[in-house]
Amino acid sequence: MTGIQFLVDLNQLYLPFLFILVVTFILTQLYTSKYKNKADISSLLPITNNHRYVFDNLIGIIIAGGIFYLLNILIFIVATLIFKTGNLNYPFYLYKNLTGQTLNEYVPTLKIIMPILVLQLLVGLFIINFIQLISNVVRDKFPTLFITLILLIGVSVSSTVIEPLQKAAAWLPTTYFNVIGIVSGKIAVQYHNNQVTFISGLITLIAGILITYCLGLIINKIRH
User: Fold this and answer.
1) Which residues, in sequence order, are CB contacts of 16 under 8 Å at separation 6+?
2) For residue range 173-201, what is the model confidence (pLDDT) as tens digits?
3) What angle do CA 31, 37, 43 make, to 5 degrees?
4) How far apart are CA 20 and CA 126, in angstroms?
5) What residues are paired with 40 via a beta bridge?
6) pTM, whole model, 2 decimals?
7) What distances in angstroms separate CA 44 from CA 35, 40, 70, one per listed residue?
């Protein structure tokens, strides 16, 4: 075990869901704090509705990004002090599913860092936009928190055991919360679904981000 490998394993096993829980609690509080009896008191500010929505979105990105990367940096520093840094050429296991057989393949850890970072960024943006959308619709802290956790974590966990969800997993943004499992191919093998890939993750997450963001803007405009 080294600092690099410890960080990779933690991001694969625990950190995605821990991050979603923490960010959901914080951003739900942020996005619903402006509503009093479901009335938006921020509308009294001398700024357009769309500009307020974009500004809130940017604040969410800064907060979520700060939490995620600060947590990763602290974990890496502590793990490095205990286990030493390690080597980016350390072999990383890839799952290759071909005609029902799982084949072994190893690549340097360095090779999978960029795909992981790209998907992590898209997952973060999707979660932020989704929380903001639900907050804008419900306008109440506890119902927003409940609905968000059920739809994000609930669907993600359910996909591991419910076969119909596994068949549609490639087009569910929640499938890609375990970014390292996607890049390694582990999720595709686990779900018996070869459509779950890095490319499908890019398409699904970008579509999810655009849909939730645009819906949020439209609802925000209608309700004001």
Assistant:
1) 123, 177, 178, 179
2) 999 999 999 999 989 988 988 899 999 99
3) 55
4) 11
5) 35
6) 0.91
7) 12, 8, 35
